[in-house]
UniProtKB/TrEMBL annotation:
Start and end residues of each 3-hydroxyisobutyrate dehydrogenase-like NAD-binding domain: 166-285
Pfam families xrefs: NAD_binding_11 (PF14833), NAD_binding_2 (PF03446)
GO terms, molecular function: NAD binding; NADP binding; oxidoreductase activity, acting on the CH-OH group of donors, NAD or NADP as acceptor
Keywords, sorted A to Z: NAD, Oxidoreductase
Residue span, 6-phosphogluconate dehydrogenase NADP-binding domain: 8-160
InterPro entries to which the protein is assigned, alphabetical: 3-OH-isobutyrate_DH-rel_CS, 6-PGluconate_DH-like_C_sf, 6PGD_dom2, 6PGDH_NADP-bd, HIBADH-like_NADP-bd, HIBADH-related, NAD(P)-bd_dom_sf
Organism superkingdom: Bacteria
GO terms under biological process: organic acid catabolic process
Protein name listed in UniProt: 3-hydroxyisobutyrate dehydrogenase
Active site: 172
């Protein structure tokens, strides 16, 4: 793939993550055009230097198109537009957390039209998108992954090619199932320690040097929970979606995973306490409303 192609990208979905990605690429000298259904999002992106175009024109002119959309259904809707307007040779990099089945279906349909589709879901939050320090788990053939690397390296500090189309979303769904569990188990462990007389700071000083540590104990609690700010930029609605994706994958594969099922039930139950727009870290309030309230 001609490296020059990587210097001009289009982005559909300029929300918390997409706008950060756009700003990061612009700061690195990449030309960025974009589209979003929300006027608030396009106004903010335009101010940042993104050339806003109507969806059809954006897709028709793009050689590299990044998607950052909420759910698989939005990615699917967008892929229908891409089928109509996309040119042969277009490479679509889907950074949304979506489903492997939808990814594979789109991959196949676009391949028949000589376009390529890569699932590259991300972690690292809006700050990681803005700083280019996300982690990407990429579902793509090796040659394509390598061809895209110069661009992926501008967007993220870690890129792992975990298999072919769909594999990125499988790994991302499993990753988010784990953080969904770790937030709850860490909150419960802290409740136990607090009731037994240990201060939260001392608890984490010990845990984070021990084998019970995780991103929840090392990042989420200090940055977004213990200070009461709950401002990670990742919503309860999106996290419940990801836990639901794990549940669907499990059902599709006819698997029973008792602890995961309990975690899924707890996230589902949180609907009565926490709105979709709440920060996903607020799940800890369900475990202990006194400690985290
Ligand atoms: P967001 O809701 O802030 O942004 C999504 C944007 O997509 C919105 O601006 C919306 O208007 C736009 N949109 C929806 N449908 C569209 C369509 N058909 N055409 C054009 N625009 C459309 O969501 P986000 O937090 O930026 O998350 C995006 C994706 O990244 C999700 O799949 C999420 O699970 C994943 N993700 C988010 C985070 C995070 O911390 N926010 C971290 C990792 C992964």
């Amino acid at each position: 793939m001609d490296r020059e192609l990587l210097k001009d990208v289009a982005i559909i979905g300029l929300g918390n993550m997409g706008l950060g990605m756009a700003k990061n690429l612009l700061a690195k000298g990449i030309t960025v055009s974009g589209f979003d259904l929300s006027e608030t999002a396009t106004v903010a992106a335009s101010k940042a230097g993104v050339k806003i175009l109507p969806a059809a024109q954006l897709i028709a002119e793009a050689r590299i198109l990044i998607l950052s959309l909420p759910k698989a259904e939005h990615v699917l809707a967008c892929s229908e537009e891409i089928e109509v307007w996309g040119k042969k040779g277009l490479v679509v990099i889907d950074t949304s957390t979506s489903t492997p089945t939808v990814t594979r279906e789109i991959y196949q349909r676009l391949l028949e039209r000589e376009m390529l589709f890569v699932d590259a879901p991300v972690s690292g939050g809006p700050q990681g998108a803005l700083n280019g320090t996300m982690t990407m788990v990429v579902g793509a053939d090796k040659w394509l992954f390598e061809a895209l690397l110069p661009l992926l390296e501008m967007m993220s500090s870690t890129q792992v090619n975990v298999g072919k189309a769909g594999a990125g979303n499988i790994v991302k769904i499993c990753n988010n199932l784990l953080i969904a569990a770790h937030l709850i188990t860490t909150a419960e462990a802290l409740s136990l320690a607090a009731k037994a007389g240990v201060e939260p700071e001392a608890f984490f000083a010990g845990i984070n040097k021990g084998s019970g540590r995780s991103a929840a104990s090392e990042v989420n609690f200090p940055l977004w929970i213990l200070n009461g700010q709950y401002h990670s930029g990742f919503t309860m609605g999106l996290m419940r979606k990801d836990v639901g994706l794990a549940q669907s994958l499990m059902a599709e594969l006819e698997m029973e995973l008792p602890l995961s099922q309990e975690v899924m039930a707890l996230w589902e139950q949180s609907r009565t306490l926490l709105a979709d727009h709440a920060d996903f870290n607020e799940i800890v309030k369900q475990s202990d409303s006194e400690l985290y309230g």
